[in-house]
Amino acid sequence: MTASLYDLPTRRSQQGVVLVVSLIFLLLLSLLGLASIQSATLQERMAGNQRDHDMAFQAAEAALRWAESQAKKGNAINDTAWSEKKEMDTYNLGDIRLNRNPQYYIWSGGQAVEGDDNINGKPLYQITAIGYGGSPNSRVVLQSWYVPD
């Protein structure tokens, strides 16, 4: 009797090894794909948060410029400094992407001294503006000192 190649003992001891190796390889590829998805999701959330912050900053900047024009005209000027509890005026941007319209507060901070004689002063205004982004959690507060021309 002659033995066939299929009856050799080395052939029988290797059955199933390819299956185990391929399952381990598939598991590693699945973990790599899962990590890539998590990374892409995190990057998308960071980009969205940055966009919300930029929208809030631009809204606050627009409210600050509007408040400067109001201060130049002498409108909406308060005699006490702003705090978080004070009522603020609203600037209607008309942008539906924003969670809220930006707000501003103008305080007359006294006189700005002009020249060396310290006599002819112009009004000095502290302007605080709050802009909101697309989500209720994005908020930017800007503050400036303004002396009209």
Automatic annotation (TrEMBL):
It holds the Pfam family PilX. Residues 71-147 form the PilX/PilW C-terminal domain. Residues 15-65 form the Type 4 fimbrial biogenesis protein PilX N-terminal domain. InterPro entries: PilX/PilW_C (IPR025205), PilX_N_dom (IPR025746). It comes from the Bacteria. This is Pilus assembly protein. It comes from Modicisalibacter zincidurans.
